[in-house]
User: Which sequence fits this backbone?
C-alpha cells in the first residue's frame, strides 16, 4: 500500500490499519492538507484486501482541535461591503460538499473503523468520529460541537450522524450550546462505548485489542455485517430483512463458513481467509 502525507500516517500490521492524525505540533488542527489527504488515505485502505479493520487515532496530546481556523479564516472573513456573488456562493457550496465527501469516505470504508479519542475532540473532530463505527475515549477526552460558538452551522456530518448515535435531546444540547462534554458524560449518553485512563496509550491499546478481535472473524462476514447495518438507514424492518436475505444469498456459501464449521468439529480456532 503506497500512501504518503504530511498530516496523516498509515501503519498496517496483521490485517489492522492504524490511521494517525499526525500534526501534533498544531494539536492536529485540520487544514487544507488534511482535507486533501483523508480521502486518499481511505482509498488506500479500501484498495488493500488484507486490511480488515481500521483504528483511527491521533499523535500528540489531542485527537484534534477541529478545523484550522487560522488557515480557513480567510475564506470566511470578507469585507462587509463586498457585493453578493452567485459564483462565490457556488464555489463555497462546492467546497463544503467536498469536505463532506472527505468525512463520508470514512463511513464508506467497507471495513469497520474504531476511533480512539484522547484530549480535545472539537468541531470537525466530532464530524470525523461520528463517521466511525465504534468510539472509545480516554478519561481526559473532551468533546464539543463547537460551531455555534464561532457562528457556523455544523455542516460536515455531525448534525446528520450524531442523532443516529445519541438521543435527540443530547444532540440538541451539544449542537446549540457548543459546550464541552466530558469523557464520563460521553460514555453515559452513548457517544463513546468505553472509558479508559488519561492520555492516548490505554485507549489506543483498547482499540487495537478490539480491532484484533474483529480481525479474527471472517472478513466476509464482518464486511457484510457493516454493509447490512448501513443499509438499514431509510429502510423499513422488512426491507432490511430482504436486503440481508439477498446478501446472504450471494455470500453465505463461502470458504470461511466451511472453515468455521470444520474448526468447530475439530475443536480449534478457525483461520479465515476472506474467501
Assistant:
Amino acid at each position: 500500500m503506497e500512501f504518503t502525507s504530511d498530516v496523516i500516517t498509515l501503519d498496517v500490521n496483521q490485517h489492522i490499519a492504524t490511521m494517525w492524525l499526525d500534526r501534533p505540533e498544531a494539536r492536529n488542527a485540520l487544514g487544507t492538507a488534511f482535507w486533501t489527504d483523508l480521502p486518499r488515505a481511505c482509498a488506500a485502505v479500501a484498495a488493500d484486501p488484507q486490511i480488515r479493520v481500521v483504528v483511527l487515532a491521533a499523535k500528540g496530546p489531542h485527537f484534534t482541535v477541529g478545523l484550522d481556523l487560522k488557515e480557513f479564516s480567510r475564506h470566511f472573513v470578507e469585507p462587509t461591503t463586498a457585493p453578493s456573488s452567485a459564483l462565490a456562493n457556488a464555489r463555497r457550496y462546492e467546497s463544503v460538499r467536498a469536505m463532506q465527501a472527505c468525512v463520508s469516505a470514512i463511513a464508506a470504508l467497507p471495513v469497520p473503523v474504531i476511533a480512539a479519542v484522547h484530549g480535545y475532540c472539537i468541531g470537525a473532530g466530532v464530524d470525523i468520529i461520528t463517521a466511525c463505527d465504534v468510539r472509545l475515549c480516554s478519561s481526559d477526552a473532551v468533546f464539543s460541537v463547537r460551531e455555534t460558538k464561532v457562528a457556523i452551522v455544523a455542516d460536515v456530518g455531525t448534525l446528520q450522524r450524531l442523532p443516529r448515535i445519541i438521543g435527540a435531546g443530547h444532540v440538541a444540547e451539544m449542537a446549540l450550546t457548543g459546550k464541552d462534554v466530558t469523557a464520563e458524560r460521553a460514555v453515559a449518553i452513548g457517544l463513546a462505548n468505553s472509558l479508559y485512563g488519561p492520555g492516548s496509550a490505554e485507549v489506543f491499546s483498547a482499540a487495537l485489542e478490539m480491532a484484533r478481535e474483529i480481525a479474527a472473524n471472517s472478513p466476509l462476514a464482518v464486511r457484510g455485517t457493516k454493509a447490512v447495518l448501513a443499509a438499514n438507514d431509510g429502510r423499513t424492518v422488512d426491507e432490511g430483512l430482504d436486503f440481508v436475505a439477498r446478501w446472504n444469498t450471494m455470500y453465505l456459501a463461502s470458504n470461511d463458513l466451511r472453515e468455521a464449521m470444520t474448526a468447530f468439529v475439530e475443536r480449534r480456532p478457525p483461520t479465515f481467509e476472506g474467501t
